[in-house]
Every structure is written in C-alpha cells, then in structure tokens.
Amino acid sequence: MTATATTVDEPDQLEPQAAPAPRGSALVRRLAPAAAAALSGVLLYVSFPPRTLWWLALPAFGIFAWTLRGRSWKAGLGLGYLFGLGFLLPLLVWTGVEVGSGPWLALVAVEAIYIALVGAGITLVGRLPGWPLWAAAVWIAAEAARARAPFGGFPWGKVAFGQADGVFLPLAAVGGTPVLGFCVVLCGFGLYEIVRLAVERRGTGVLRRGAAAVALLSIAVPVLGALAARMLVSDKAENGTATVALIQGNVPRAGLDFNAQRRAVLDHHVAETERLAAEVRAGKKPKPDLVLWPENSSDIDPYANSDARYVIDSAAKAIGAPVSVGAVVERDGKLYNEQILWDPVKGPVNTYDKRQVQPFGEYLPLRPLLGAINKNWTSMVRQDFSRGTKPGVFTMNGTRVGLVTCYEAAFDWAVRSTVTDGAQIISVPSNNATFDRSEMTYQQLAMSRIRAVEHSRTVTVPVTSGVSAVIMPDGKITQKTGMFVAANLVQKVPLRSSETPATKLGIIPEMVLVLVAAGGLGWGAATALRSRRNTGAQDDALAGTPENG
Is-cis flag, bond preceding 286, omega within 30? Predict the structure, then answer.
C-alpha cells in the first residue's frame, strides 16, 4: 500500500500577513485623541479676550467633536475632562495670582468635571439624527449647572463671554448668553460634521443627504440668525441722554494688601474727582450729571468714620453731582459690599448691597474644614460678607442707574433684575487690583460688552485700577483707561427703556435648551441600551447554533 503524501505549504505559498503595528505608532494612536482634546480646550481659551480671535471657538469645538466620535461614555468622560483642563487652566490662572496655585488648581479641577460630563453626554447623543443640535444643548445645560453650583455657581468661562468681537454677538439680544453660546457651539459641531461627511464621501462615493442638510443648517441658522438679530441692536437714545463720569483713582500697589491701603485708595478717588471738578470749571470737560466710583473705593466705612464721610462729601460737593461710592460697611455686626448714593447736598440717601458675593473671596464656605487644612486660607477672609436682597437702581439726577457689582456681572439673573427694575443704564463697579495685570480685567470687560447688547443698555465699568470703560448698547467701547493709572472718563450716553427679547424671556431660553439636552440624553441612553441588548441577543443566538459537521 502506497503512503499518501501530505501537502505542506511552502513559505512562498503562504498568504501574506499584515505586519504588526509598531508599538510606538499604536501608542500615538491611543494618545492622539487625548492630546487633541486638551489642545482643543487650549484653542477655546485662545478665542477669549484680551485676544479678538473669537472664531477659534468653532474649530475648538469641531476638534473636540472629532475626539469623541464613536467613543464610549467612559472615554468621553476622560476626553471631556482633558478639554476642560486645556480650557480652564489658562483661562483662570489669574485666580492664583496672589493666593498661590492651590486654590487655582482646585477650582479648575472642580469646574472641569462639568465639561467631563459634557464629553460623556455627547458620546450618548452623538449617534442620534441631528446630533450637533443635541450636543450643543448638552454643553449649555452644563453651563447652566456650573452657573448655579457649588456655592452659588461660577459662570466664568461661558462660551458667550468669548464672543464680544464676534459676528454672533447680536444673538445675545435674542436669548442672552445661553442662546449666544448655543449657536457658537452648534456651529463648531456643524463644521466638524461637514468635514466628516466630505471625507466619508471621498471614501465611499456616497453622500448622506439628511446628515449633510443638518450639518449645513447647524452653521447657516446661527449665522443668519445673528445677521437678523442685528436689527435688535441699537445705540440710539429713547429717553434722552445723560453725561456720566467714571472715576478711576488707582491704588498705591497691587495685590491682596490692597485692603491695607484703604485710606490711600479713598484719597486717590477723592483727588481724581476733585481734579475732574477743576477740569469742568476750566471748561476742559463737560459737567457730569452723575459720577460713578468703583467697588472698594472707600473700604473705610463712612457711616462709622467721620473723616471718611467728610472727604467723600467734599468730593461730591466739588463736582456738584450725585456720586455712587463703593464702600465696605458694617451694619448690625454684618459686613456688606455696598454702593452708596451720595448726594452733594443731602449726603448718603440710598444704598445697594451686593447680592452675589464671591465664595473664597468675600465669604468662606466650609470654613472649619479649610481652616484645618491651611489656616492662611481662613485668615484671608476673616469675616464673611452678607448678601443684599434687592436689586440696586439709583435715581441720579433723573437717570435710573442699575448696579451690578463686579462678580455679579457674570450672572445672568443679577444683570437682568436691574433692567426689569427700571434701569436706563447699567454700572459695573469693580475692583481688580487684587489680580494685578492679569487677563481677568479683560475677561470681565468682555462680559460687560455682552450685557450691553443683551439688554440694549449703556454699560459703564468704573474700576479702581483699570480697565475702566464706557460701553454703548451695541457693545462697542467708546472710551477706556489704562491699567494702574489715575484717570476719569466723561461721556454723554443714551438712555434706553425698551426691553430686548432676552430681557423679556429671562431664564426661558436656557430652560428650553436644558430640556432639549435632557431629551437628547434620554433618547441617546435608550438607543445605546437597546443596541447593547440586541447585540447580546445576537451573541446568545450564535452561541446556541450547532456547528456544521
């Protein structure tokens, strides 16, 4: 019997096998999305003031969307956190200018959690039809949460606040910062979707028309909406005009020891007011109808200190106009960050107590815990400031001036309440001396420009050390000072009383977008769960099928 030979493949007869990817390239592929997420966050930061590169927000969100495409929610959580760190670490570096890196890093670590949740949320809605709409709403829902918790919220870094120089700015008059921010994010995601579909078509030759239409609308609707909203933006007077004066007295030196220079700061503001009065008498500047001093211009309580009262009264009499004085006062054992309406004849006649006081700056949450960790932190805020309860609107020579003290400008409700209470112009008295020459001043100035358009009001920004500015209702800055100089600004400004849709609607647009986000997340979660069940059922069916043999 002849043995049967077994055929053995020769090496040259074997099918070619793909060479394993080098370990280095595999590592790069794994790290590329993480690096892109962090760098796209940095790109969003660069779009913010003092730079005027507002348009960089669009590719920032486009790249962020690319990093999340097809990822699990857990990966989205991590990528979102990296995006948040890339954005917030440089944006908020000013918070550590005087107190060190600890509080700055802690703040960023907490705030980035919200953006991490956005990343996870976008992975859920990213497979839905019209995903850019759902994803943009998820971002705004996170901003809404971040503006409210913890400790009263921290809205700094809202996408809208980076758009003071952008084409989308008029949308602030339509629905405030939520609508403005939503449209910017929607455009960014729409931009990515257009690029993705174009690449897909080159590879397959197929264009998914429905998805392409959604992508185009994601860009066209916000842009056309912004162009249409320009009709809502006006700097024309409705109730006449008023000549306002802003006093920037400057401080002897920057830093936290600003508070140790209380008398010098008060004297600086008195001297600058008296210098303006001399210029008015000499005919060099027009006589103001009202004078606005910044926050902390008198940290000596004029009710308790007769000398402080005397010099403020002298300044008001010299200029011959009512003065809004920023003071720190104690009443019934409680501290208040207060604006005092000082009449040149009657003296103090009205007050506004700051309502949104700053955590860790004006009051210390978790004081016993923080004191146990580091006693220096509790010594920086020895006594908590108390909150005011009513909107501040001063009638100054017939002009109704709404007061929004410094940190409050970041909060939608605080600014709107002054307008609904009858303010014809808005004043944002601030003290930025603590933060030296950091970007904080310019970020806050941009917020005031957004508020001007949002409510169609002139916004004045008197600051202890700069930058003080006059902003028209269309968001344009007409006058501003330098930093750490004594200066005054005098200008005739329009008075307005009509309300924009944003003013009338208030919180409604934001709540609608939150509901859209909730609906998208619910739909996305249900779709993902159904897909997982179907996959599990198919696996079970395959496992139960007998093998052919």
Answer: no
